[in-house]
């Protein structure tokens, strides 16, 4: 069926960020959609589906000073283009590690960040981003830059990325909030929000409402985004974030009647409990195609998983971070899923692909599969029906 999403997606629900502030400030709250900006709401298509592509671990800018680096970025762009052309999703989620900031000796990693968004933007598809542990990591001097005399040879990335052509480079990391503001300000298709200020430097904490095709005010599913840290601060979903999530969900979905799906970058410790034995074959009820390494979880578990498990409306959590894992496994009342390594940057040579989600409205269902760069599809699973 021809999918014709874009015209219906032109409208957003930013608004819920206002709900967040109301909740945390103890102000009066008037309804789940407080300020629905004209022309910006995510909606199911006229065929009552909403399809999402997850791009995980692109790692743009890795080894930017070598010939290898830019070639990998081109390859990653090719993967995204292949997936987008095949699946024609209504929405794209960049699931963290968009860039390898620890390899970027420039003041503004936004240039690489922007390049990673380009295949989606050029097709007119809206998107949202969250942070991974590499996106604001501090610059690490490559040992090979040091000459025999011990004086480092300063190398800026290729001029085509520097834009201004200025001499010299700054080597400080680019802050999360800088990256996010650049994206939001420059892109009308970006649905990313910079989250409640009281949670900073954990920035990508927000929710998007996907509405019914027939009524833009009628929520069908809520998509929650959380910043799982790393880079400039610990790899955790903090207790403050968990409390924020708890307040928010009680306001916008108090009786858990609306299905909810959650996205962050680094798997929580619960993933270790749900995981198949590392490097063993994946057996039911888990579904996936690669289980090549152990789960590399967050540093601590401070309440978010208990909150998710207690909400029957939470259907699944999706993470990236482990490039050698692409499984989904059940955990209590929900599913824990890895995406699929999309980028040619980052460790591992496993074939690249993207996890796809497809939701239906009547009745609500959530299916998922993995679309590979070569066009093949595998690991299809119904996560909610
Ligand atoms: Zn990664």
Automatic annotation (TrEMBL):
InterPro entries according to UniProt: Calcineurin-like_PHP, Metallo-depent_PP-like, PAP14/16/28/29
Highest taxon listed in the record's lineage: Eukaryota
Keywords: Signal
GO cellular component: cytoplasm
GO molecular function: hydrolase activity, acting on ester bonds
Protein's UniProt keywords contain Signal: yes
Signal peptide: 1-22
Domain Calcineurin-like phosphoesterase per the UniProt entry, residue ranges: 50-323
Keyword Nucleotide-binding: no
Name by which UniProt lists this protein: Inactive purple acid phosphatase 16
Species assigned in the record: Iris pallida
Lineage summary: Eukaryota, Viridiplantae, Streptophyta, Embryophyta, Tracheophyta
């Amino acid at each position: 069926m021809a999918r014709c999403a874009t015209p219906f997606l032109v409208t957003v629900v930013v608004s819920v960020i206002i709900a967040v502030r109301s909740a945390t400030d103890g102000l009066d709250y008037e309804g789940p959609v407080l300020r629905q900006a004209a022309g910006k709401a995510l909606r199911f298509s006229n065929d009552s589906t909403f399809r999402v592509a997850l791009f995980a671990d692109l790692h743009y800018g890795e080894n930017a000073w070598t010939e290898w680096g830019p070639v990998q970025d081109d390859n990653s762009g090719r993967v995204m283009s292949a997936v987008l052309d095949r699946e024609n999703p209504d929405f794209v989620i960049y699931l963290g590690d968009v860039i390898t900031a620890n390899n970027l000796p420039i003041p503004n990693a936004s240039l690489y960040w922007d390049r990673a968004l380009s295949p989606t933007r050029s097709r007119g598809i809206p998107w949202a981003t969250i942070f991974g542990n590499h996106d604001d990591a501090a610059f690490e001097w490559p040992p090979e830059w040091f000459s025999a005399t011990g004086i480092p040879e300063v190398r800026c990335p290729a001029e085509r990325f520097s834009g201004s052509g200025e001499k010299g480079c700054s080597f400080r990391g680019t802050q999360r909030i800088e990256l996010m503001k650049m994206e939001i300000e420059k892109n009308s298709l970006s649905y990313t929000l910079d989250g409640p200020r009281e949670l900073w430097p954990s920035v990508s904490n927000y929710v998007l409402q996907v509405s019914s095709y027939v009524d833009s005010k009628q929520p069908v599913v809520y998509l929650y985004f959380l910043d799982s840290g790393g880079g400039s601060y610990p790899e955790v979903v903090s207790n403050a974030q968990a409390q924020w999530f708890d307040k928010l969900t009680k306001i916008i979905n108090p009786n858990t009647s609306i299905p909810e799906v959650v996205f962050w970058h680094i798997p929580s410790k619960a993933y270790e409990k749900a995981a198949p034995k590392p490097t063993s074959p994946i057996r039911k009820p888990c579904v996936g195609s690669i289980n090549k390494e152990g789960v590399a979880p967050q540093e601590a578990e401070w309440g978010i998983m208990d909150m998710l498990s207690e909400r029957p409306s939470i259907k699944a959590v999706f993470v990236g971070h482990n490039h050698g894992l692409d499984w989904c496994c059940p955990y209590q009342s929900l599913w824990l899923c890895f995406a699929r390594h999309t980028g040619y940057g980052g460790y591992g040579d496993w074939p690249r692909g993207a996890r796809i989600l497809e939701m239906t409205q009547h009745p609500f269902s959530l299916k998922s599969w993995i679309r590979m760069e070569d066009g093949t599809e595998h690991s299809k699973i119904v996560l909610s029906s």
